[in-house]
Amino acid sequence: MEKTIAYMYLRLSRDDGDEGESNSIGNQRELIKSYADKAGFQIIKEYIDDGFTGSNFDRPDFKRMISDLEKKACKTIIVKDLSRFGRDYIESGKFLQKTFPQIGVRFISVNDNYDSDNADVNDTHLILPIKNFINDSYCRDISMKVKSSQKTKRQRGEFIGAFAPYGYKKNSKKKNHLVIDRNISHIVRKIFEMKVEGYSSKAIADELNRLGIQTPQAYKEDNGSNYSTGFSSNQSKWQAKMINRIIENRVYLGDLEQGKRTKLNYKSNKEIKVSQDDWIKVEGTHEAIVTETMFNVANKMMGRDILNRKTKPDFLAGLLYCADCGNQLVRRNQKTKNGQTIYYICGLYNRGKGCSRHSIKEEDILSSLNYILKQHIKYQEELFLRIRQTDLSKSEYDLDLDDLLAEKKKYETLRRSLYMDLEDELIDEEEFQSFRKSYQLKIKEVEQQILNRKKAYNDLEEILNSKENWLTGLEKYKNIESIDRQTLAFFVDRILVGEKDEEGRPRITVFFNDMEKLDILKRILKGAKKTKTSNLVSFNSMAIKVLSTEREGVALYG
């Protein structure tokens, strides 16, 4: 008796819980061969999708099989059961009830005792849809369980990514924990240091390429990982966007931010971005590569318009701003008979688009900064020495949020009153929408100020609990002869340069980092039981002005 030729289709998924031996590729093959021998079929070709989900039909060998079936060289498919064919009950139903009958394909599912050649109407139109629906529900249930398990691990601070971030590797003894990869961690630090020094991201990438440093992808591949990234696979050189991703990633602070993307649904591999508010963030999950100060300053510099220089940028890159228009100052060289004079002018003026010159010599501003920074460091040291001698507790200082809360309440009241004004026809619809938008914006701004203030107090708790560490950190800066770029960037947020006064002296205003925290510390000292207000009077008057408010800064004539 001549045997009927048939195709065999095998599938095993890594994500639907089918890793057991009963559903292994080998088991499926043996079961189908046994059935084929008894039922008079000759298997002429097998199609295998190993590691592909059954929730959709985007599988390479499945597509090849359908293409071959349409050529009508063979008209029979045999599978172990319906779940191996697919778990999407709608798409499975289309194939079994429409596509296969149209092209004359015979479909056999061994464990379901289903053969389309001798199935009755109930089998095809009632029993199969129910089984397909059950398979689809199973797939959805597994997907939900996997997502729930991943969420729990993320909330515990476990790293669940397939590959460790550049600069780290997975702990061989604890796979969900990151440890520093000492072979390349210095490259990560170099990237942050160069950004703090004022290099553009492109300049950093160019330097790494010049030094022959492997890209993250190349490094992983050389170490035996089938590595994939969000970048094009043919990118063998460092690029600015790679540098930016590293600098923005809080993993280098020892924190994990996971769940940034999610699959559209369990039937699709398409991923969508998740709102940053919904990311799962856990701090202190592993050893940091860079300090918080280094991280913050590098990210601040990345947000500023630093020129794409291939050589080292100027000392004040990303720090100098025009006090009138807010544009960055640009560096200029003027040749003189004694050499050259370096000075800065307003960037807007330099482009011929307005403002005024705001010219200042580099030597003048560096001299002023050297003095201001030394005084600021001295003040911080005195402040923390005073705190170390003071018995502080959280009950001895107020959160000082009453003014902000009152301001928020005021705008909320004004926003509510708009509805009555509109109803009484005191304002029209256009005015209503305009005022409403304005008040909502004000409320949002105040809420952010409240969050910032609370965060500042929480951060200060850490400072108060590690006074010695803070003073140790200041120790290396207090005896500096002249400031370097890194010291300047660590302490200074920005410098405003105003026009010259009647005597030809430019006015500069320096804004220091963490001024709000220092201002809070000053108020804490004033309110502490064992500290007298007069203790602050002996501090340098210029430094006291530093702490008065973030908006005021330090003013000094050159």
Automatic annotation (TrEMBL):
Signal peptide: none
All residue ranges annotated as the Recombinase domain in the record: 165-308
PROSITE patterns: GATA_ZN_FINGER_2, RECOMBINASE_DNA_BIND, RECOMBINASES_3
Domain GATA-type: 322-369
Resolvase/invertase-type recombinase catalytic domain mapped to chain residues: 5-157
Gene Ontology molecular function: any one: DNA strand exchange activity
Pfam families the record matches: DUF4368, Recombinase, Resolvase, Zn_ribbon_recom
Gene Ontology BP, a term: regulation of DNA-templated transcription
PANTHER family on file: DNA RECOMBINASE-RELATED, DNA-INVERTASE FROM LAMBDOID PROPHAGE
Name of the protein this chain belongs to: Recombinase family protein
Source species of the chain: Wansuia hejianensis
